[in-house]
Design brief:
Radius of gyration: 46 Å
Number of helices: 8
Number of strands: 24
Distance between the termini: 77 Å
Structural class: alpha+beta
Oligomer: single chain
Length: about 475
């Protein structure tokens, strides 16, 4: 207030002004020597608990709490002693937030009965749609009408201040067409969209882009003895068909695989190779029987004297890499043997991750299956996965050399799980770990070259057939 004039002139002005005001609390200059006015006025925003400061964006669903504080500053920018103050009105976010009982005397400890700082009443702020759309809100607070304790009569209505803060707002929005959002108890709650159309004849799902998809189901019980329909109330309905050929020479039944079956009555022509039936118009009909012993390992024929004859078939694929046997359920089986060895390259396993054996997945780490990786100062390799190892490049350093070995080792391990590989899984682990433990680049490269040779024996299965590449 007194900036730009001498201290004596300032005191005279303040004293003359004080003659016209009768304070309700106290009337004196406090602290001694005070000739200037001023204060610290800060506005803060908190989460709904009223204690946690807001840092960064806050959910549009949350009601924030605003608090302002008034504090004594001591000196102004020119080094003049600032007077204690009291009374006045605090406004936060457009509403009165004056402390309960009014603003007390705020000043240094030398001012009897004063406090150094006081907070306003807390004010809640609920974000408006316009504020949410803007993504930010500016909140204003002010203090006015304060009385400065300068002179015997004080100076009323001289203390004032204003401030503003901005709070960023995080909108509560759906992540996709299958997400429903709502503010619940101050929290943005995401709920899956209910795509149930109440129709038992549809499969209800949700597409992230297009929303609910209600796809008609296909009612098929694979039973030729039913008519398949769908009732929206209960779903698929399988109604039995009626088998009736109006033929007195048949027994009418139904086979789920083929539908209606009309079984002939007994007619015997003395041949073991016929099924004897009856035609209402012409009499018995002798139908050749079907010889099938259910074994894929026989050729089925029929001898009129004795009936069906099941002659064993000969299984021979003329492949030295297989042992030829016959399985009654599927016929000839050609099992790979020790005469031929195979090995698939790192590139095959890198590109054909769905063709892997079950002993590892792309995200399985080498360490988890028994490789001692990460030594010799190559700590970055400690957590390498199979798919990462298969893509390692190698180079001239020791650690680059271990990359070359780990690439070959990953392929060798997977090949050993297939079988037919020159090394067992335990042997692969032993050779690789010994080379890694040596910390000798020459030994590492030698081990990698040995495995690389095995990994290029030809990517075939136990039957000598090229393995197919299945990609994700």
């Amino acid at each position: 207030m007194c900036k730009g004039i001498g201290k004596l002139a300032c005191l005279a002005i303040l004293l003359l002004a004080g003659l016209a005001y009768s304070p309700t609390a106290r009337a004196d200059t406090c602290p001694a020597g005070a000739v200037s006015t001023g204060l610290s006025f800060i506005l803060s925003a908190f989460h709904s608990d009223g204690t946690t400061p807001i840092v960064g964006p806050v959910s549009e669903c949350e009601t924030i709490v605003l608090k302002a504080s008034l504090a004594y500053t001591g000196f102004d920018s020119e080094g003049n002693v600032v007077a204690a103050f009291q009374f006045g009105t605090v406004t936060v976010d457009g509403t009165d937030a004056t402390p309960v009982g009014g603003v007390p005397l705020i000043g240094p400890a030398s001012c009897v009965g004063s406090v150094p700082i006081i907070g306003s009443q807390p004010k809640n702020h609920v974000f408006t749609p316009a504020e949410v759309t803007a993504g930010i809100v500016t909140i204003v607070a002010s203090y006015s009408g304060g009385t400065a304790h300068i002179g015997d009569s004080d100076i009323p209505n001289v203390e004032s201040a204003g401030t503003a803060i901005q709070v960023q707002i995080a909108a509560c929005v759906a992540t996709d067409a299958c997400d429903s959002v709502a503010c619940v108890n101050g929290v943005c709650v995401h709920t899956p969209v209910d795509c149930d159309d109440g129709n038992a004849c549809t499969t209800d799902s949700c597409d992230a882009v297009n929303g609910c998809q209600n796809t008609p189901i296909v009612c098929n019980d694979d039973d030729a003895c039913t008519t398949d329909t769908c009732d929206p109330a209960i779903g698929c309905v399988y109604t039995p068909i009626v088998c009736n050929d109006d033929d007195a020479c048949t027994t009418d039944t139904c086979d789920p695989a083929i539908g209606c079956v009309y079984t002939p009555i007994v007619c015997d022509d003395g041949s073991a190779c016929t099924t004897d039936t009856c035609d209402p118009a012409i009499g018995c009909v002798y139908t050749p029987i079907v010889c099938n012993d259910g074994s894929a390992c026989t050729t089925d024929t029929c001898d009129p004297a004795i009936g069906c004859v099941y002659t064993p078939i000969t299984c021979n694929d003329n492949n030295v890499c297989t042992t030829d046997t016959c399985d009654p359920a599927i016929g000839c089986v050609y099992t790979g043997n020790a005469n031929c060895q195979t090995g698939c390259t790192p590139g095959f396993f890198k590109n054909c991750t769905l063709s892997w054996p079950g002993c590892a997945t792309p995200t399985t780490t080498l360490a988890s299956v028994g490789f001692t990786v990460g030594g010799c100062g190559c700590t970055s390799q400690a957590g390498v996965t199979f798919i990462q190892a298969l893509g390692l490049k190698g180079g001239s350093s020791l650690c680059a050399g271990t990359e070359t070995l780990l690439r070959a080792a990953a392929a060798a391990y997977l090949n050993s799980c297939f079988g037919g590989y020159p090394l067992s899984t335990a042997q692969v682990l032993a050779e690789v770990n010994a080379a890694l433990a040596s910390c000798d680049r020459a030994a590492v490269i030698a081990a990698a070259s040995r495995l690389d040779g095995f990994n290029n024996l030809g990517c075939k299965d136990a039957n000598g057939v090229d393995r197919r590449c299945f990609r994700p």
